[in-house]
């Protein structure tokens, strides 16, 4: 599979390429209501993270606009964040609790912030935004380096959709949404099972037939590979749930919330 993902396909006028795949034009709509921004979805994650922090300070890798970090800080947890995109990070302080989140602009594979944390977390599939195995190992090692002994690292990420791939096929659709006006949206993931690279592909067509197609690059890792990354970083699996409701992780789970503990 050739990788035609190209940052220039999503950049709009005024966007800073240094903000990566989350520049101003994406950040401006990131907090729109619905989906991951539903209060119930956010609070389910915040409930678990608050309990796991157990009164200690927490660090969010790829804090984004503070969707999770701000309400966690609003509960009284001391929260720091690392974020690549200034456009995303600029929105943290405007949320209730967000003015108490200490955000450092940097790359979570290597950026260090002061503190000795009881919890580090990386949610909403964002480990997959790091597109090399070495880079993902670096994320685990950097998380462990911020944790006190016994501290916890949490990842929320989808299970790769490989079981949905029939032989000879490399794409899994996730949304097909035609509009009444003859436009619509189609989204699909395309997997390369040799390299573990995948792209999320987004095709939008307006009523007049004009289209936009862009692809965002990711790397998938099976949960067991993440357990090995954790071991490399000096951590061991403590919990694996299928979601923030702490339901059992099974062969049919489409996502996991995994918790590793620093030795
Ligand atoms: C899907 S958003 C998640 C944001 C937030 N954690 C949330 O749950 O809403 C992914 C975020 O990861 C950030 N990001 C991607 N790669 C990064 C990296 N290597 N270091 C720091 N942030 C990164 C992006 O800029 C973006 O804000």
From TrEMBL:
GO molecular function: methyltransferase activity
Protein name as catalogued: Methyltransferase domain-containing protein
Species of the source: Microlunatus soli
Gene3D superfamilies, sorted: Vaccinia Virus protein VP39
CDD domains: AdoMet_MTases
One Pfam family hit: Methyltransf_25
Keyword set, alphabetical order: Methyltransferase, Transferase
UniProt keyword Transport, yes or no: no
One GO-annotated biological process of the protein: methylation
SUPFAM superfamilies recorded: S-adenosyl-L-methionine-dependent methyltransferases
Keyword Ubl conjugation: no
Methyltransferase domain ranges (all copies): 59-151
């Amino acid at each position: 599979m050739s990788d035609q993902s190209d940052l220039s396909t999503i950049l709009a006028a005024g966007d800073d390429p240094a903000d990566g795949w989350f520049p101003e034009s994406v950040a401006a709509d990131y907090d729109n209501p619905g989906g991951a921004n539903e209060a119930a979805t956010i609070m389910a994650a915040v409930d678990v993270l608050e309990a796991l922090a157990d009164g200690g300070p927490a660090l969010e890798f790829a804090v984004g606009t503070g969707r999770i970090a701000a309400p966690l800080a609003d509960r009284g947890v001391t929260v720091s964040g690392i974020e690549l995109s200034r456009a995303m990070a600029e929105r943290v302080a405007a949320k209730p609790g967000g003015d108490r989140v200490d955000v450092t602009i940097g790359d979570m594979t290597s950026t260090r912030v002061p503190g000795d944390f009881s919890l580090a977390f990386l949610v909403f599939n964002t480990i997959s935004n790091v597109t090399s195995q070495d880079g993902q190992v670096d994320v685990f090692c950097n998380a462990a380096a911020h944790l006190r002994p016994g501290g916890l690292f949490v990842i929320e990420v989808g299970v790769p959709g490989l079981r949905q791939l029939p032989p000879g096929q490399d794409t899994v659709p996730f949304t097909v949404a035609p509009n009444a006006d003859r436009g619509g949206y189609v989204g699909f993931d395309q997997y390369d099972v040799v390299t573990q690279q995948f792209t999320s592909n987004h095709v939008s067509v307006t009523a007049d037939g004009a289209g936009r197609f862009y692809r965002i690059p990711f790397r998938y890792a099976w949960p067991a590979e993440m357990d090995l990354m954790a071991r490399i970083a000096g951590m061991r699996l403590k919990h694996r749930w299928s979601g923030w409701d702490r339901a059992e992780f099974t062969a049919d789970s489409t996502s996991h919330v995994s918790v590793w503990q620093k030795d």
